[in-house]
Specification:
It is built from four helices and no strands.
Length: about 120
Amino acid sequence: MRRSVVVAEVAMVVLLSLLSFIANLVIDARFPECSDVKPAIALSSAFFCLIGVVTFLALESLRKDAVKYTRAYMVLQGLKFILSLLVVIVYGFFNREQLLPFLVIFGVFFMIYLVFEAIALTKLK
């Protein structure tokens, strides 16, 4: 495995974990009444860390073949979207009163992850 892939994976996990930690600190300091959204932060962070590692590992093995790389990238994007939708539906089913805060938190993590992924994958190829 190339060193740049390992660095990208570690950077992504550190970034998402740091964002999760900072969000928890802000909630504790400024919004203690919203402490029930902390599981949503942890779930979002863990989900995108896992998805990111799987994406980078899968695409690293295919980087020399452009056709397979592109096909795998598109399949992974579709799976990521479906899994994200499934996580939101399952969370909403079990925790309906916290669905809106979860959607906001999940959306923020999703956008940050997409930006990071785009930057990292352009360097991977």
